[in-house]
């Protein structure tokens, strides 16, 4: 019997710097804060899904170093089952994150380290884990060839597939038909379809373009505007779910993907799962950091209950 969520992706140690703006080339400015914590899109999504109530397996590579130890401790605390290869010749990845301390906006540079060497052999080694999941998730921080192989395995086994095409890197067109759900933000969606998305009509037009490429459902995340759920027969803008003042948007997309995938695995309908993902993201942006900001199931359910009662 299929159960839970499996995720292929990378872990990096997030080094986050708070300041009023980014420095210019050759300039040094004084920051207002600093933190080090667990990150990486796939890893963040795994933590989010586990805290949101799902069984989760995370497939990746780590270095045998301090940051790798941080990753394994994170998974133990969150209840994520690691399917990890540890390497002696490559370090665990790291990310530079600038966060504007006034509005929470961010800019990021990622070095994937050991996880950048994830290959189809890692995916094949995790085949049973993927095939036995209800939902499989991947992104583009690891090589696209590994993502495609994993999506093919999941698709052939009848596992629901969720593809987060982030960062906005080139990938084979053959990936699109393997996607039950593709989850780009508006910038990534614009890169995929070749036109900007300033209006809701443009967003829906982008959804149509993604369906024409072979995906079953497009979920285009739009920040505070919510998420467009778009299929051939149904298109609805699911509003964002606010939880409090926004202080850090860094992990919002990962919170949405993790919460959405956990909800799907638990049997919620797709639109209910989108609302659940929006609530997960709505809580995460009220906290600093990425993985540490992911809310627990009872917090998400309480926020949704408050919204339903309002």
Automatic annotation (TrEMBL):
One GO BP: D-ribose catabolic process
EC top class, as a word: transferase
One Gene Ontology cellular component annotation held by this UniProt entry: cytosol
Places the protein is found: Cytoplasm
EC number(s) stated in the UniProt entry for this protein: 2.7.1.15
Positions of substrate binding: 12-14, 40-44, 141, 254
Required cofactor(s): Mg(2+)
Active site per UniProt: 254 (proton acceptor)
PANTHER family (UniProt xref): RIBOKINASE (PTHR10584:SF166), SUGAR KINASE (PTHR10584)
Name of the protein in its database record: Ribokinase
Species name: Sinorhizobium glycinis
Organism taxonomic ancestry: Bacteria, Pseudomonadati, Pseudomonadota, Alphaproteobacteria, Hyphomicrobiales
């Amino acid at each position: 019997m299929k159960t839970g969520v499996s995720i292929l992706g990378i872990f990096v140690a997030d080094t986050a710097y708070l300041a009023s703006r980014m420095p210019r080339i050759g300039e040094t400015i004084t920051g207002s804060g600093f933190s080090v914590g667990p990150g990486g899109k796939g890893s963040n999504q795994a933590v989010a899904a586990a805290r949101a109530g799902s069984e989760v397996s995370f497939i990746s590579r780590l270095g045998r170093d301090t940051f790798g130890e941080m990753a394994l401790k994170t998974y133990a605390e969150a209840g994520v089952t690691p399917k990890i290869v540890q390497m002696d010749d490559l370090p665990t990845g790291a990310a530079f994150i600038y966060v504007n301390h006034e509005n929470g906006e961010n800019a990021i540079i990622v070095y994937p380290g050991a996880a950048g060497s994830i290959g189809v052999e890692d995916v094949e080694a995790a085949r049973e884990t993927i095939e036995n999941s209800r939902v499989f998730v991947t992104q583009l921080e690891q090589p696209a060839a590994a993502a495609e192989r994993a999506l093919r395995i999941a698709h052939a086994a009848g596992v629901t597939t969720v593809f987060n095409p982030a960062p906005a890197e080139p990938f084979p067109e053959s990936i699109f038909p393997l996607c039950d759900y593709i989850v780009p933000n508006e910038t990534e969606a614009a890169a995929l379809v070749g036109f900007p998305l300033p209006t809701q009509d443009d967003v829906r037009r982008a959804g149509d373009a993604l369906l024409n490429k072979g995906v079953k459902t497009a979920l285009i995340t739009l920040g505070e505007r919510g998420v467009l759920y778009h299929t051939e027969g149904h298109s609805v803008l699911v509003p964002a779910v606010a939880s409090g003042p926004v202080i850090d948007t860094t992990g919002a997309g990962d919170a949405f993907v993790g919460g959405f995938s956990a909800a799907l695995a638990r049997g919620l309908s797709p639109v209910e799962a989108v609302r659940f993902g929006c609530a997960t993201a709505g809580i995460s942006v009220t906290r600093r950091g990425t993985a540490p900001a992911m809310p627990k199931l009872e917090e998400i359910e309480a926020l949704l209950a408050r919204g339903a009662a309002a």
